[in-house]
Prior knowledge:
The structure is a single chain. The chain has 25 helices and 21 strands. It is of the alpha/beta class. The strands form four sheets. Strands 13-14-16-17-18-19-20-21 form an eight-stranded mixed barrel, surrounded by four helices. The protein has a five-stranded antiparallel β-sheet with strand order 2-1-5-4-3, sandwiched between helices. Strand 7 (about 350-355) and strand 8 form a beta hairpin. It starts with 7 loop residues before the first helix and ends with a helix.
Amino acid sequence: MTAEPDGPEDRLRRFATIWSRAVFPVTSTSLTRPEFEQQLVPLARRLSDALRARAFDAAEGQAVGTALIAAHCTDPEALSRTLDCVDAYLVLYCGEDGPQDALRTRSARLQHAMAAGFAQALRERTLTEQEAIAQATLNARSAVAEALHASEARFRAVFEGAAIGIGIADLEGNILQVNGALLRMFGGSEQGVRGRKVPEWTHPEDAPQVWRLYEELVRGEREHYHVEKAFYRPDGTALWTNLTVSLLRDADGEPQYQLALMEDTTERRLLNLRLRYEATHDALTGLPNRTLFFERLEKALSAGEGQRFGLCYLDLDGFKTINDSLGHAAGDRLLVEVADRLQSCATAPGEMVARLGGDEFVALTTGPDTEREVDALADRIMNALVTPVRIDGRELTVRGSIGIVEGPAGERGPAEVLRSADITMYRAKSAGGNRFELADPEADARAITRHGLTTALPAALDRGEFFIEYQPLVHLGDGSVRGAEALVRWLHPQHGVLGPDQFIPLAEHTGLIVPLGRWVLEQSVRQARAWQERHSDAGPLRINVNLSPCQLTHPGLVQDTVDILEREGLDADALCLEVTESALIGADDDLLKPLRRLAEMGVDIALDDFGTGYSNLANLRRLPVSILKLDRSFTQSMQQFPADPVDLKIVEGIVSLAHSLDLAVTVEGVETGAQAEQLRILGCDTAQGWYYARPGPPERLHELALVDATG
């Protein structure tokens, strides 16, 4: 019979046990270790909950650090051991099955918050002790003779029992008394500490104001001061302290002694340095991360007059393929190798390399001559990537696309510079990759506009910003209006009226083309029904609606079309769906099946832009189309007289082929009467273009149809 696996509560208590064993030896408490462990269990539970919470809450970590002080864990070693324990075991015992990298990052942030809470609570305790010491000192000085002995006893108790270091010196700097805590900080004997004068305790990292404040205090011009100060220990190591020095006066108010209170912050400082490094460097590659890079970039952009900057934004080409085929471990090893190579490219003063995340890196150069230096830096990076990387016996070719931004400091902010570099990098990638491109403000503006339009598309449909214009379809034989093509427009609040070429590709990319196409179909069918009711004597008017390739593959195409026709009461033969020739090149039966079903219902299918897709003409027989829309490129020469005889032969051949297959021919882009007459002679059936009418509101088609009916 196998044992049941440990539950979350068991793992939590195991973590609390490990924590108590680590911290108990350096804790000033009268509790036994098991009793002390029971105090840590609720703190361990708070850390566990904070580790797995949906959103990070630094207050939880700070509260645990504060609670340690309340539990008498005031020795800095207790904090150091606690953080080591949390770093090693919190994710292991309390992380359950969550993502390990994210949990370790959350654990590091919790450690930082715990250290902050510990420091704040210890500082408040220190201030409380300072007040007690100051009060005891005043009582000892001002009490009557009968209470002098008791006051001195209280002062001595506070002096010797304080967790912080305390020293008393005269105004000449001679050290008179020190307590045990201060001696332990310096790791030496009392004689070794008292044998030196205060002005001898200098350190190279002393702030300029430290000794100025000291001189003001011993002259009686200042009552106290507080600074962060380093000291040398006897073994040469540094002791960092929060130092508070106060002036003690005699009964007549004359300066007499100086009282120094020292809090040892060495471990905390080392921890903060370590946490700062971890917070500003990439864990995988060791390079500076996004946080540190933005700090450096902001500093470079705020440099003085005459300073410039150059930025290379690198994205590896095809990195996802390596991750998918060889695994993330191989991808990580590749990133480490790339990071090492990039690091070797940026060794000059003012240059740095950072990893922004994933397979994105940046290289920054600063100085007065970055116009030349940034190009040289990009060349070094591209050359560094030439040599293949060998991983698990495979040689992997590394390629990268780089966007370069260069300019004077003080004109742009970090976010704007990085956005420009990102846009430029994608322009290099779109051009084939393995190259670098220079930033172009006009290209940036176009990309930003495209992004703005993309994000505004969904709301635009909800707000009713789209509308439809209609271009008449005219019969070339008798000049009658046979219908119209529906052309969608976007009335953008800032950019005005936008044509489909400006937003249809964006709608296809985001998937919005399906609901937008359904809306266009519904509005167009409703309009066609209105035309029929108003001009019943003019014969049926057909409505042509464009379908994008994305709509062709949408499973609801046929049902949506049927529902709209039935709801609006329009016959299927009054609807024509236009599909570009390129969308049907090489189409299999699955793609053609919905078109065949629509054609069987009576809906006309038109092959739009015919002649631009280089399709095999023999394939026309298998496509469920009834109309060819001849691309305007074949008929442009017919605007002049005489027309190009080669174009005439091509159009004549296409028309003959189409008619032999029982297909009607519609011509786009008719702009002159000569062109229309020539196309009529060649046998084309219908036409559309500016010669007849530009796209416009549905009322214009009413007028044209009315003229045709009465004319």
